[in-house]
Amino acid sequence: MQPRAANPVIEFRDVSYRVADTQVLRDLSLQVQPGEILALLGRSGSGKTTTLKLVNRLLSPTSGEVLVNGVPNTDVEITQLRRSIGYVIQEVGLFPHFTVARNIGLVPKIEGWPEPRIRARVDELLQLAGLAPALASRYPHQLSGGQRQRVGVARALAADPQILLMDEPFGALDPLTRDELQREFISLQRRLRKTVVFVTHDLREAMRLGSRIALMEAGKLVTILSPDEFSCSTDPRAAAYVKAFGHRLESTATEGKS
Fold first, then answer.
1. How many CA atoms lie less than 13 Å away from 219 in the CB half-sphere?
2. Each residue of 125-146: pLDDT tens digit?
3. Who contacts 237 (Cβ-Cβ below 8 Å, separation ≥6)?
4. Which of 69, 49, 72, 71 has the alpha carbon at shortest distance from 59?
5. 46: three-class secondary structure by DSSP
6. Which of 87, 136, 179, 206: CA 20 to 30 A from 252?
7. Structural contact between residues 222 and 215, judged by C-beta atoms closer than 8 angstroms
8. Which residue in 166, 213, 216 sits closest to 189, CA to CA?
9. How confident is the model at residue 247 (pLDDT cuts 50, 70, 90)?
10. Left if phi > 0, otherwise alpha if psi is -120 to 50, otherwise beta: which for 166?
């Protein structure tokens, strides 16, 4: 388990979220530390994506509060909050009528960056995301699934946000492309040290990418453990995940955790 920092970047304080008669999330309290990847692990309907969306106020808690850099996120103007947080989803969400360069440079343009600075940032991020410069003038439909995901990550990083929210960004990719992008993301994180909340239902992915794993079930937090702790946990719900994913966990638990 990593030592706790005095000032978490993200903090949930007794957060609940209800839709009509359905309690989606209940009494969630957790902290995300600077530079860590917190993997939210759980089945469909466990509350992972809801937790993610509460950070950038795509949803608002029924009760409790979410703090970003020590300030309730409701005290931050919503556009300013969202522009300061990168957001990557499985479907990517690129604008189909924008070129790769325009997609990546969108937030800096909205922020009023001068064009030479935007072009330089786009070039930098293409290289950082492992994309050839020639792709800058292409449109999303002209890219492979893996290339579109790389563009999605690059766009999320464009304004250099401190926080990245990632909702199963590699889940729709074929296994080889998914493996490649996971490796590249580990390398990227070593250089950038963003604070990341990463939603997945795949324990292997959580082990490989996460500094800590927060296991969720039926809208409640079950436990938060390091990958090594998770792999030998006696909690029956954590142990069930380990049993289901089998012997391939050992290598992913130790990979890239420098």
1. 13
2. 999 888 999 999 999 999 988 8
3. 215, 217, 222, 223
4. 49
5. coil
6. 87
7. yes
8. 166
9. very low
10. beta
* 144 CB-near residues (< 8 Å, 6+ apart): 177
Q: How far apart are CA 224 and CA 111, in angstroms?
A: 36
In the numeric block, which tokens belong to residue 87? 């957001």
User: pLDDT of 172-200, one tens digit each?
Assistant: 788 888 888 899 899 989 989 999 999 99
Global pTM exceeds 0.70: yes
How far is the C-alpha of 197 from the C-alpha of 39, rounded, in Å? 6
Q: What residues contact 23, with CB distance under 8 A and at least 6 apart?
A: 16, 17, 219
In the chain, how long is the greatest CA-to-CA distance? 55
Q: 3-class DSSP state for residue 150?
A: helix
Half-sphere exposure of 19 (CA within 13 A, CB side): 7
Q: Which residues contact 28 (CB under 8 A, 6 or more apart)?
A: 12, 14, 15, 16, 47, 51, 64, 220, 221
Pairing of the two strands 212-217 and 195-200 = unpaired
Tell me the C-alpha distance between 139 and 43, whole Å: 34
CA distances from 246 to 46, 142, 204, 217 (A): 22, 38, 9, 20
Residue with tokens 């579109």: 148
Here the tokens at position 89 are 């989803």
Contact (CB, 8 A) for 164 and 195: yes
